[in-house]
Amino acid sequence: MNALQSDEELIRELRQGNQIAMEILVKRHYKSVFAYLYRYSGDYHTSYDLTQETFIKMVRHIDNLSQEESFKHWLLKIALNTCRDYYRSRSYKARQLSNEWTEETADSSYHQVDIIDSRIESDSVKSAVMELPDYQRETIILRFYQDLKIKDIADLTSVGEPTVKSRINQGLSKLKAIMERGVNHDKKKNAR
Predict the structure, then answer these.
(1) How far is CA 163 from CA 19, 51, 118, 133, 159, in A?
(2) Which residues contact 159 (CB under 8 A, 6 or more apart)?
(3) Cβ neighbours of residue 129 under 8 Å, at least 6 residues apart?
(4) pTM over 0.70
(5) 131-141: per-residue pLDDT in tens?
(6) What is the pLDDT of residues 2-51, one digit of tens each?
(7) Counting CB atoms within 10 angstroms of each CB, which of 2, 58, 75, 106 has the fewest?
(8) Which residues are CB-neighbours of 96 under 8 A, at least 6 positions away?
(9) Among candidates 88, 131, 132, 128, which has minimal Cα distance to 112?
């Protein structure tokens, strides 16, 4: 067994109980899953926990992966559902009550440029993305950070392509407004 095997070959071996195949798959896809979950949650520790849970679910449900499905796509769907489950959980809701959001949490020192295309990873952009409603945040992250096509996002999130396009357009508009609000807030603060 070597790390150059395709995902499909490793999945076959994992289904036969080969532990090394599982380790190679996890190692190969860990960064991508963690990056998605981190961008979605904005919290390192939460992302770490959700990534671990995603890979546990991957192993548990590997037999549910069909021949036609892309492994990476299937794994991101598990990550997305794990994230959604977490945000619906009582522990998340209890944590939110103890950590009220303030406008000071956003670092607004960033001047508005083309946020998404330049893929700026500044704190202000992360904060702005975190202010989006869940459905827009996940769509923006899948499109611009995971580089998925509209069709793949529609399939992954179980909505139609027009809905995905609408969520992207609305999300980008909201991001722009949030970023402009942050820049204006900084200008007022500096004028004092």
Answers:
(1) 40, 27, 24, 14, 6
(2) 167
(3) 39, 42, 137, 140, 141, 175
(4) no
(5) 999 899 989 98
(6) 668 899 999 999 999 899 999 999 999 999 999 999 988 888 898 999 99
(7) 2
(8) none
(9) 128
The answer to whether 124 touches 179, Cβ cutoff 8 Å, is: yes
Domains of the chain: 1-100 (1.10.1740.10), 102-192 (1.10.10.10)
Query: Could you tell me if 50 and 86 are in contact, meaning their C-beta atoms sit under 8 angstroms apart?
Result: yes
Dihedral sign for Cα atoms in the order 147, 53, 44, 3: negative
pLDDT of residue 119: 43
Cα dist. 38→35, 120, 192 in Å? 5, 15, 36
DSSP letters, 79-138, are HHHHHHHHHHSHHHHHHHHHS---GGGS---PPPS-HHHHT---HHHHHHHHHS-HHHHH
Q: What's the token pair of residue 63?
A: 């037999």
Cβ 137 vs Cβ 102: under 8 Å: no
